[in-house]
C-alpha cells in the first residue's frame, strides 16, 4: 500500500504540483504515556493540543503537542506503545527532528536540561545556525535550533511552563538518513523543495544537503547519506507529514508522487486533517496532510487537550476504549492536572 517500486522511478510528474510549504507534523514512537506527557508538556513547554487514540490501533493513545493554537508546522505527535522494544536510528528513517527557538535562548535551555536531567550534547554550528542536540526519555533524537523569530511569524508561543523568550516555535527541520539519496532528493524537488547548500555532517563524516520549502515554519529537510541499519521501536520517528493545505493541493501532489513510481494511498480522513501516505524510495514513511479542519474543530481553543477526544466511529466505543487506556494526567503550571476521562 505504501511501498515504492522502480517502475517509472526516473519519470518526473507531467505537471508540477503546488509546492509544499513545509512540514505539517512529525509522529514518533514512545513508551510510557505519562513519562511522555511530563517531558513534552512540562520540560519542553509544548501544549497538548489533542489527546486522542491511534485510529489504526485504538487501544493506544495518540498525543499531539504543538504551539498555543496547534498551528500546522508545530505538531509533534506520539504513539506510546509500552510493549515495544527500544528502536535504533538508521538508514531509511528520520534521524533527527529539530525545533526553532528564539535567538539567545540556548543558555536557558541548557540550564533547564541540567536542572531536569535531560541528556544533551554540546552545541554544534550547522549552516550558520547554532544547534543543541538532545534526547527525550525514550532516546528520541531531537534538536533545538536558535533562529530569529519574525514579528509576523504564524506560530503562537505557549507559555504555561516556558517563557515566551525561549518557547519552542514549531519545526525547523527533519534530517533523513538515506543510503542512496539521489532519488529521494529528486522526490523532494518534485514536492517543491529547493536544494540550498551542503556541508560536512559532524555525526556521520558524510555530507549533509539541505533542501528548503517556501513556508515560514518547518521549511527544511536535510539529507545525509548513511548506510547503517536501524530498527523501528521506542525512540524513533514513525513518519513525517508535509503540508498540502487543500484537497486540490494534496491530489496534485499525490499524482506527482505516483508518476515517479511510488504508491501513495487514497485519501484517509484523520478527523483533524486528511492524509495520504507513501514510502519514499529509501523507505521513510511520508504523509501529505491538509490544513483543515484543524485541532480546534472539535474543541474550544482554550480547552485543547483537556479531554480524551474520540473521532468519528470511535465515539460509540468510549467506555470500551477508555477502560483499556492507562490513566494519565497532564502537567499544569499551577501543579494541578487534567485527568484523562471525558466529561
From TrEMBL:
<dbReference type="Pfam" id="PF00903">
    <property type="entry name" value="Glyoxalase"/>
</dbReference>
<keyword id="KW-0223">Dioxygenase</keyword>
<dbReference type="GO" id="GO:0051213">
    <property type="term" value="F:dioxygenase activity"/>
</dbReference>
<feature type="domain" description="VOC">
    <location>
        <begin position="22"/>
        <end position="147"/>
    </location>
</feature>
<feature type="region of interest" description="Disordered">
    <location>
        <begin position="1"/>
        <end position="24"/>
    </location>
</feature>
<dbReference type="InterPro" id="IPR004360">
    <property type="entry name" value="Glyas_Fos-R_dOase_dom"/>
</dbReference>
<dbReference type="InterPro" id="IPR052537">
    <property type="entry name" value="Extradiol_RC_dioxygenase"/>
</dbReference>
<dbReference type="InterPro" id="IPR029068">
    <property type="entry name" value="Glyas_Bleomycin-R_OHBP_Dase"/>
</dbReference>
<protein>
    <submittedName>
        <fullName>Ring-cleaving dioxygenase</fullName>
    </submittedName>
</protein>
<dbReference type="InterPro" id="IPR037523">
    <property type="entry name" value="VOC_core"/>
</dbReference>
<feature type="domain" description="VOC">
    <location>
        <begin position="170"/>
        <end position="291"/>
    </location>
</feature>
<keyword id="KW-0560">Oxidoreductase</keyword>
